[in-house]
Amino acid sequence: ALISKTRLLSENRRKGRVVQAETLEAAGHVLLLTSLPEDEYSAEQVADCYRLRWQIELAFKRLKSLLHLDALRAKEPELAKAWIFANLLAAFLIDDIIQP
């Protein structure tokens, strides 16, 4: 929470803006909304799922950036699928080589 508030103050100071007290207070919190049943999932489980989902989002962002997966050139569905699978395989192989 302290890091979020510090970052918020620093960024706004650099841009010459004043941070409202409500904004500063909100910077220390994370609000997660879900349709999961409250009696089956604790707040901690929901937060864990969100963190995992965020890591998946970051992984796809890296893939799109590094392997240019955002520029699908194939027009035929089967060719597009093969192109995506080949690039994902390459990404997994690269990751396996890089990871200790």
UniProtKB/TrEMBL annotation:
Domain of life, per lineage: Bacteria
InterPro entries hit by this protein: RNaseH-like_sf, Transposase_11
Pfam families associated with the record: DDE_Tnp_1
GO molecular function term, any single one: transposase activity
Transposase IS4-like domain mapped to chain residues: 13-93
Gene Ontology terms describing biological process: DNA transposition
The protein's name: Transposase
Organism: Alkalicoccobacillus porphyridii
